[in-house]
Amino acid sequence: MEKLLIKDAFIIDPATNIQDKLDLLIVDGRVGAIAPGMVVEDAQVINAHGLVCAPGIVDMHVHLRDPGQTYKEDIQSGCCAAAAGGVTSVVCMPNTQPVCDNAEVIADIINRASNAPAHVYPVAAVTKSLEGQSLTDFSALKAAGAIAVSDDGRPVSTPSAMMDAMEKAELLGLKVLSHCEDLSLVRGGIMNDGDVSRKIGVSGIHRAAEEVGTARDIALAGATGLPVHICHVSTRGSVALIRDAKRRGVPVTGETAPHYFMLTDQLLEKRDGDYRMNPPLRTQDDVTAVIEGLQDGTLSAIATDHAPHSPGDKADFVHAPNGVIGLETSLAAGITALVKPGYITLSKLLALMSTNPANILGIPAGSLKIDSPADIVIFDSSQGWTVSADRLHGKSKNTPFKGMMLYGSVKMTLLDGRVVYKNGSIV
Ligand SMILES: [Zn+2]
């Protein structure tokens, strides 16, 4: 038996309500015991004095760019970025090339991820080639290992296709993850439509583009009783729609991303493509509403929408593709913007980043209960660091947090009880 003893940590496990100074014993890759002052003669010891030990982060919205655009990221580099950020479960989106719309692509991703420093859970496309027309073979995709379906990057274009998808997915126990956007309202916009877009003279995307999409999928879920998960919520209107739907008992869940609770469209005044993503950065009022949504449970998960693009891709502000990276900064962004100012507790942040997304998707993660996989993050919750592109582990450097001081530094990440990241390096 292989034994590893994490000594003297402040253990926080939202799943079992543990918040105490304790030791954690890992036996053969699984949580074996949590108790004070353990002495285990044949165990290797990690001294975690002054550090927090928690279930590894579950990032339910990641683009690994593999297959097809591996100059931006690949499975291995994306999982290294994950490990450096304390992320042990990566849920990857299907807008790869080829699209993840058939069993072969899913099986290939799972096969190539088997030795990566994070667990990888592929999401399959809802429609063939993400074209919004005919549904993929959900049953075959699930059998190959897909854990959810989404056309992320694009909305499922018609309500009828979305309703069919929700029905089929429910029969198979797959969650539908919806990128809510009405493309007819985008009108060539590249950032939030508002004072800043007018000031710098570029076309804006009206917030209604997101909110019409959110309202549509909530209407479908409300009328049918079938569940839907709303991705990357960014506006006050979307938060209000989800809050109202939940009060009415509609089976809807929602996620947001660190950039939506921390950054505003004022950054676009720099005309830097690294601040462009879809949905776009909004206003301070939206940031406040997203934080309120996280506080009151309207939004139940934080994911990154990690979307790597090369410096060349991002060089031209107006024509740059949308997307920002986030795997290595999400925990620190949450601590800095939500915990430090007192909006939520650290335990609640870990629920939003680990326990809740694992529960939404049915992933065996997000908990330190006895016999669960020892996927663990050990971090200093108060240490500050400045985000600089050259210390990141992924292939792309398009972080909107560059130059910012964040608090919360990952010291060690364990996957199935094995150390995969330690003090700045992949192990
Ligand atoms: Zn999306």
Tags for this model:
single chain; 427 residues; alpha/beta; Urease, subunit C, domain 1; TIM Barrel; 2 domains; nine-stranded mixed beta sheet; eight-stranded parallel beta sheet; 19 strands; 24% strand; globular; binds zinc ion
CATH class of the largest domain: Alpha Beta
Report the average pLDDT across residues: 97
SS elements, strand count:
19
* Major sheet description: 9 strands, mixed
Low-confidence stretches: none
As for the number of domains, it is: 2
**Tally the helices: what do you get?**
12
The CATH architecture term of the largest domain is Alpha-Beta Barrel
CATH homologous superfamily title of the largest domain: Metal-dependent hydrolases
Helix fraction, binned, reads 25-40%
Tertiary shape: globular
Rg on CA atoms, Å:
21 Å
Structural class determined from secondary elements: alpha/beta
Descriptive notes:
The model has no long low-confidence stretch (mean pLDDT 97). This protein has 427 residues and is an alpha/beta fold. Strands 1, 2, 3, 4, 5, 16, 17, 18 and 19 form a nine-stranded mixed sheet that branches. Strands 6-7-8-9-10-13-14-15 form an eight-stranded parallel sheet. It is 29% helix and 24% strand. The relative contact order is 0.16. It is globular. It has two domains: 84 residues, Urease, subunit C, domain 1 (Roll); 306 residues, TIM Barrel. The longest helix has 17 residues. Helix 2 packs parallel to helix 3, helix 4 crosses helix 6 and helix 6 packs parallel to helix 7. Zinc ion binds next to loops.
